[in-house]
Amino acid sequence: MSTAQLKEKLHTFIDRGNESFLKVVYGVAKAYSEEEKKGRITIDQYNKELEEAEAEINSGKYISHKEVKNRMKKW
């Protein structure tokens, strides 16, 4: 099904849906929208986060894969 067909079907479902259905669809759409906003950062922010992460690694502030595996065994 194409994007246009999906949109048309969704519009039909929304037009025919009761309040309960509409609240569910709204909740899903709102959650998706909020996740999309969270995931977007500027290139400057991205580069800053990379630099900070590299600085932590270079200063020894990291946990090795072996240590993570050992910690997981204790869960």
Overview of the structural elements:
- The protein is mostly helical and 75 residues long.
- It has one domain (3-73).
- It is built from four helices and no strands.
- The model has no long low-confidence stretch (mean pLDDT 89).
Topology:
Blueprint: H1 3-16, H2 19-39, H3 43-58, H4 65-73
Termini, distance in Å? 44 Å
Strand proportion: under 5%
Return residue spans where pLDDT drops below 50 for at least 5 consecutive residues: none
Instruction: Give the mean pLDDT.
Output: 89
The gross shape turns out to be: elongated
Structural class: mainly alpha
Quick structural summary:
The protein has helices spanning 3-16, 19-39, 43-58, 65-73.
Search tags:
4 helices; mainly alpha; 75 residues; 0% strand
